[in-house]
Amino acid sequence: MIKLIMSDMDGTLLDENGRLPAGFADIARQLKERGVLFAPCSGRQYYSLLDTFKGYEDEFLFLAENGTMVRYHDRELFSSTMNRKLGMKALQETRQMSGIYEVYCGKKGAYILSDEETAAFREELNKYYTHAEVVDSFTDVDDELIKCAFFDEEGRAGERIYPCLKKYRGPFQVATSSDYWVDMMRFDINKGIAIQQVQKKLHISPMECAAFGDYMNDAEMMSSVYYSFAMENAHPKIKELARFQTVSNRDYGVLKGIQKMIDDGLCG
Length: 268
Prior knowledge:
Elements: E1 4-7, H1 9-13, H2 24-33, E2 37-40, H3 46-52, E3 61-64, E4 69-72, E5 75-79, H4 84-92, E6 100-106, E7 110-113, H5 119-128, E8 132-135, E9 145-152, H6 157-160, H7 162-165, E10 172-176, E11 181-186, H8 191-202, E12 209-213, H9 219-222, E13 227-231, H10 236-241, E14 244-246, H11 253-263
Parallel strand pairs: 1-2, 1-12, 7-8, 12-13, 13-14
Antiparallel strand pairs: 3-4, 4-5, 6-7, 6-9, 9-11, 10-11
């Protein structure tokens, strides 16, 4: 029986307007009645996830910042901090590139540079980082570094940002999370490793877990559960990794996938 269901957010659970799909509350109710734990598993900030899931703060498990921050009942289960000196160096790599913006992601919040705070960037930032502070320099930040995020306003993050940062692969994990974003974390953390840590702490096996994803930062998540679902709109490599497929986020693929598992008697 499935005890834990994880879902990516953007391009997966959320609709094309970035909102929870109609019918989510009913699915959440059915899972709760069956004792199945639901977990948003996202590159988004923990506080952003709380804003999205108002009313579920004490009910869901939250795997935020691509697994670098995991909280349950508002308690930190575990986190993964980066080497600050090397992370700061990476944040400087794209400073001179036009249309590229950097985000210092800490445990207490996110931080952006004052000379980069344009209205367009702030609007994009607010989608994923509801707790964000403007600073003159990242060296002024009094917060542990858990992730570096890089935004490309042209939507060519894989072409423009990733090649610039791939030299940090080894000490860090570097992954595109969408056409617009590249995330950098410690080499030994990703969504999959975070899920494995949760499985150990909660004594849940991969056979008792399901996950839904669409992009490359979901790759390790696919291999950490048995019931791995790729969205119809997923990256081709994610479709290759997943055991199952569901319809697109536009057509409420996560809800339909979960409902089918419930109807098939796999949940509770």
